[in-house]
Prior knowledge:
This protein has helices at residues 78-86, 124-137, 158-167, 194-203, 219-231, 251-254, 284-290, 326-330; strands at 4-16, 19-26, 39-45, 51-57, 67-72, 92-96, 114-120, 142-149, 172-178, 212-216, 239-242, 262-269, 272-279, 308-313, 316-318, 333-335, 339-341, 345-350.
Amino acid sequence: MSRFHELLVTEVRKTTRDASVVSLRAKDPALFDFVAGQYLTFRHVDDTGEELRRSYSLCAAPNGGTLQVGIKRVEGGVFSSWANDSLRAGMTVEAMAPMGGFHQPFDDPSAARSYLAFAVGSGITPILSILSTLLRDEPNSRFTLVFANRSINTIMFRDELEDLKNRFLGRLNIVHILKTSGDDAELFQGRLDREKCEALFAQWIDVARADRAYICGPEPMMLDIAAALRAHGLTEDQIRFELFGAAPKTRRAVVQSTKNDGVQATITLDGATTEISTNRETSILDTALTNGFDAPYACKAGVCSTCKCKITAGEVEMVANHALEDYEVADGYVLSCQAFAISETVSVVYEDH
Ligand SMILES: Cc1cc2nc3c(=O)[nH]c(=O)nc-3n(C[C@H](O)[C@H](O)[C@H](O)COP(=O)(O)OP(=O)(O)OC[C@H]3O[C@@H](n4cnc5c(N)ncnc54)[C@H](O)[C@@H]3O)c2cc1C
Ligand code: FES
């Protein structure tokens, strides 16, 4: 069973000079049902024959009939440059079914909640989907978005956000923070760091009334914002993160391993179970891939959760985890790209996504 499915590109349009919104149509739409905040993982073979896998958050609200991602060009980035330069309507791309748990949907349309969100640059994509969904599905809830960008010209989805503000009058408050800005007040200029959060919370945003906060952007910024939110009374389970990238860690950098004992791994994928000899220095994912399993993965950096699997016997050590919640880890789930066996035998199950 292939994990990747064909999607027809129906439109590619620029949202800024360096970012494109790509609309897609699935051959089998049921496979691409999603909840707000989820992402697609694309597979693309570049000119050198190398297979690339990259994840992009869905930016439209679910159940609106639109499958859309926003791809911002990263300087020197292979996939994002290809997508911005070469992707055209009529082309076919391959993606896995939607994944990710950034937003846990609420199912109470009568709820009157107050949401906060913080986005930097392309970090707006999952948040746009979440805020469109919440404003549509919870008519009594309110949303405040703090959106940081380099300059006004680099604001992705600027028109869409303005439209939402007009459509949901009084329920969506958008605070733009621009790094380089001509005449805005000092509060709305500079970096979105801890100091900026404190200033915003003192003058503009009432954190005490917030029920939940969503953060998507570079890691240092997310940690700063989360610290500020915690200092103002939000609890861990009220703060949700989505990370787009992280510095890869190798096991050696984290764990002083003196042994290289053999490991018997039992891997179950797509209903078939196979026993494999491996070692403690090879991740569970690499063990699966090098033994011919079509195990799911994308970032290989502990960020996207595409490679999530469950440990049903034995013990593993996870050297980085930027994606799983504590309760998932407590239930035995690991990121297989970051998980290394520390027992002589280990059993791993990749569940159907
Ligand atoms: C769950 C998830 C959702 C994502 N959603 C989106 C999205 O909606 N829109 C979007 O534009 N991107 C998103 N990303 C990031 C995206 O997957 C790619 O990492 C990014 O487009 C760069 O890929 P590339 O092939 O162009 O760059 P690469 O060729 O992989 O990298 C080139 C250089 O850029 C650096 N780099 C890689 N990613 C970033 C980044 N995000 N910011 C700054 N520098 C970087 C690398 O370290 C490297 O030095 C998401 C990532 C994850 C894990
Ligand atoms: S492949 Fe992204 S977390 Fe493992």
